[in-house]
Design goal:
The chain is an alpha/beta fold. It has 7 helices and 7 strands; from the N terminus they run βαβαβαβαβαβααβ. It has a 7-stranded parallel beta sheet with strand order 3-2-1-4-5-6-7, sandwiched between helices. The structure holds NADP nicotinamide-adenine-dinucleotide phosphate and D-gluconic acid.
Length: 261
């Protein structure tokens, strides 16, 4: 093995929902590793915000307005990317939402909305991109799963169902397309400091204390903690890793939790 195996030089990476948060951190790491960056968001003003953030970071990115749950928009965006760059080497299905509602109070439409973004959309986007990866003889698909791919908790029934399904979609894409030199893996972040978890991180909030007690690292994760694992799974260094979910959680899944003092 050589260190160049970790390089993404000359690669084209599409990270969905990457104007900010985890997606932005992963795309920024890919740019550092040499990749050309493509991202999408659901609204033009968010794409513009993302472009400004990438520019501020010295990264030349290409942004598209695309709702990942909309198959026509995804197909049109895929065609536009292929037209501009000629290929998509790396796809990160990052876009996601969560609704924290007790199951008995959750409307079926709210449940469906979470499943649509967090599970149906990775299917739609992967289905649009895989044919070009087959044609190119290689591809990397990375699905942003969750600890809720393994565990449940109160109020996140839709999210856990979606992320559990995303783990199995990851394994199925790996199974069905590994023969074309396409590797599909997941990243399972722990509790990460992003807008999505801001409501849970209020100092003194019971959940904040709970997560710190459940994490051997005794801290919330940062989007930057995901960058190395994401580069590894997008690089040639992981060409024989397939159908795996790499948990980047500070050890939460391994730990029963700090005993009350
Ligand atoms: P975030 O801050 O809420 O960002 C999510 C991104 O996805 C936003 O840019 C959002 O755009 C975009 N998005 C949502 N629905 C979309 C759609 N239909 N089409 C296109 N883009 C859409 O979330 P995050 O914390 O960075 O999380 C990113 C991923 O990591 C998600 O899949 C999440 O489930 C997962 N994750 C997060 C954590 C954590 O602790 N933060 C842990 C494990 C897994 P808008 O602003 O327009 O909605
Ligand atoms: C929650 C959190 C988690 C994290 C993440 C953990 O409400 O429990 O939002 O779901 O976002 O998915 O891996």
């Amino acid at each position: 093995m050589e260190m160049k195996d970790f390089s993404l030089e000359g690669k084209v990476a599409w990270v969905t929902g990457a104007s900010y948060g985890i997606g932005f951190a992963i795309a920024s790491a890919y740019a550092t590793a040499g990749a050309k960056i493509v991202f999408n968001d659901i609204k033009q003003e968010l794409v513009d915000k993302g472009l400004a953030s990438y520019k501020e970071a010295g990264i030349e990115a290409t942004g598209y307005v695309c709702d990942v749950t909309n198959e026509e928009q995804v197909e049109a965006t895929t065609a536009a990317i292929l037209e501009k760059f000629g290929k998509i080497d790396i796809l990160v299905n990052n876009a996601g939402i969560i609704k924290r509602i007790p199951m008995l109070e959750m409307k079926a439409s709210e449940f469906r909305q979470v499943i649509d973004v967090d599970l149906n959309a990775p299917f739609i986007v992967s289905k649009a991109v895989i044919p070009s990866m087959i044609k190119n003889g290689h591809g990397k698909i990375i699905n942003i799963c969750s600890m809720m791919s393994e565990l449940g908790r109160e109020t996140v029934s839709a999210y856990a169902a979606a992320k559990g399904g995303l783990k199995m979609l990851t394994r199925n894409i790996a199974s069905e397309y590994g023969q074309y030199n396409i590797q599909c893996n997941g990243i399972g972040p722990g509790y990460i400091e992003t807008p999505q978890t801001a409501p849970l991180r209020v100092p003194g909030h019971p959940f904040n204390e709970f997560i710190l007690a459940k994490t051997p690292a005794n801290r919330w994760g940062k989007p930057e903690d995901l960058q190395g694992p994401a580069v590894f799974l997008a690089s040639d260094a992981s060409n024989f890793v397939n159908g795996h979910v790499l948990y980047v959680d500070g050890g939460i899944l391994a730990y029963i939790g700090k005993q009350p003092q």
